[in-house]
Design goal:
This protein has 143 residues and is of the alpha+beta class. The protein is 19% helix and 34% strand. The radius of gyration is 15 Å and the shape is globular.
């Protein structure tokens, strides 16, 4: 069996521009891709490192948006996203083990179909499964 692939690490920030500047210093040369996800109340800046996308997330709503309801208000590392080739098959395997996605998922995310899972109780991590768009850049490729 092939080991899982981490697609991205999601980090919630209060202000996007200073966070972009800080990340650009830490990841020099990493291509930057910006996206808006209005239906989730998010602005997204993605740094494409060779092996991982670092996703900076800023809420654009006043506390009533879907993104904030799913991911919470706390700035900092928010979620770990696992890349899956077939989201429906991955969710079926998890359901067989008693794990259901959060309400409202699967749905369209910033760069593919996604499903957030409940907080993992032992580690406290929030996991997202992502079936990336076929036409999107691979990590490390410019957008």
């Amino acid at each position: 069996m092939k080991p899982p692939r981490i697609d991205h690490l999601g980090i919630v920030v209060d202000e996007l521009e200073p966070a972009i500047a800080a990340m650009a210093r830490l990841l020099p040369g990493a291509p930057l891709r910006r996206r808006s996800v209005p239906d989730a109340g998010l602005e997204v800046a993605e740094f494409h490192a060779e092996n991982l996308i670092v996703e900076l997330l800023r809420y654009t709503d006043r506390g009533d948006g879907f993104g904030r309801a799913v991911m919470g208000d706390t700035p900092g590392v928010n979620h770990l996203s696992l890349s899956v080739p077939d989201l429906d098959a991955a969710l079926a395997r998890l359901r067989a083990d008693g794990v259901e996605p959060l309400p409202g998922f699967p749905r369209r995310g910033a760069h593919g179909r996604i499903a957030f899972l409940p907080h993992e109780s032992v580690t406290g991590l929030r996991f997202e499964l992502c079936e990336p768009d076929e036409d999107g850049p691979a990590p490390g490729e410019p957008s």
